[in-house]
Amino acid sequence: MNLEDRVSARPEVRPSSPRFLTENWYVYLNVLFVVGLLIAYYIMGGWAFPDYSNYVTIVNNGGYLFSKDEYMAEWISRLFLGHGLQVFDSADRVVDAFALFVQIFYVAFCFYFGANKTMLSRRGWFFFTAALGPLLITTALRASPAYILVAYIAASGMRFNLKFLFLALLAVSFHDSALILVVLYSFSCLISRVFKAFSPIVYKITLWFSFCLIVFSQFITLALFSVVSKLNIGIRSVYFLELPQTSIVKKAFLIFIWVIAYTTIQNSNVQSRSKIFICGSVMLTALSFSLSEVVGIRFALYVLGACLLAKGAFLFSGEHRSRFRQVDVMLAIAYFALVFMDILRNTGEA
Questions:
Q1: Residue 341: which of 40, 28, 45 has the closest Cα?
Q2: CA-CA distance, 79 to 63, in Å (whole number)?
Q3: CA distance 71 to 108
Q4: Which of 86, 87, 198, 322 is 20 to 30 Å from 337 by CA-CA measure?
Q5: Pick from 299, 314, 305: which is nearest to 184 by CA?
Q6: pLDDT band at 91 (very low <50, low <70, confident <90, very high)
Q7: 157 neighbors 5 (Cβ within 8 angstroms)
Q8: In angstroms, rounded to a whole number, what is the distance separating the alpha carbons of residues 192 and 165?
Q9: Is the pLDDT of residue 239 over 80?
């Protein structure tokens, strides 16, 4: 077992009064955020949110958006969306039932399986909801369980065992994108086993290299695009039909994710397997962003979820002695409001 793993494996000592109450308050805030999102979703109706119409199209097409060659896995998602009309009388009702299923999954996992059955902190699940809840509860329905499961696997530093294989298979059953992250985490387990200890400088060098890839993505694009655009990767070739336009806003968002990843590797309680995965997934995100901003942002959300759960913090490292712990809560609330308002601003436009 690595030195970092031995440190992180120590049972967390709960302080007697104020800190314990504070930990409970993260649960209350999490519940408040989730309830608020659900109320908004059902008052406005699913049709108001982005991607709902795409799900209806998938239902009407028998489980596919365009053709049967689109997906490698996603068995659970296609079971709902491809055969739902055998149970419900309209595509809308099928999508509504699928949305309810995903939302129940979110609540059950985050509040019961996630917070009560592992050493991951309740604080970490609060930050997870603050950052990803608005998207996962209202819009990215197929990918929502995949984001939750991959974040849970990576943040807990799970070993390569039957539990990992089951959860990994479950994640891929909801969305294909999880497959790449699952393979990456498997390599993280292998690397952690072969190399018993890593110097912090290795993590930092990897992340700084990724930072350069993000900043100079438009130059990396020219080198990679001519190769990738010629590959036959099925329906996902649509991501690489033309050179991506550089978006300053999306690049700034990736740099923001990078800062969160960088502070995560500085947390001594985060296990080595988690740190290796985070460094690798940031590198994957940076390279993907050079080829397709859509793919890069999708991977970035996996990084974000894993980091927030692993360190139990938002922008800062989450160390217990940090004087910025409460500042982090305010930043997370502000971020939640910003993302939620942006989604509401785009409702009805899909």
A1: 40
A2: 8
A3: 27
A4: 322
A5: 299
A6: very high
A7: yes
A8: 18
A9: no
Classify residue 313 by burial, with Cβ atoms within 10 Å: 0-12, 13-18, 19+.
Answer: buried
Structural contact between residues 275 and 4, judged by C-beta atoms closer than 8 angstroms:
yes
The token duo for 300 is 């970035």
What confidence tier does 257 reach under pLDDT thresholds 50, 70, 90?
Answer: very high
Q: Does this model's pTM top 0.85? A: yes
The pLDDT assigned to 245 comes to: 65
Please state, in angstroms and as integers, the Cα–Cα distance from residue 88 to each residue in 140, 185, 255, following that order.
Answer: 22, 38, 44
In this predicted structure, what is the pLDDT of residue 236?
55
8 Å CB contact between 4 and 203: no
**HSE-CB for 303 with a 13 A CA cutoff:** 32
pLDDT digits (tens, 9 = 90+) for 45-58: 999 998 899 999 99
pLDDT at 218: 74
Q: Report the chain's C-alpha Rg in angstroms.
A: 20
Q: Which residues touch 183 (CB under 8 Å, ≥6 apart)?
A: none
Position of tokens 């699940």? 125
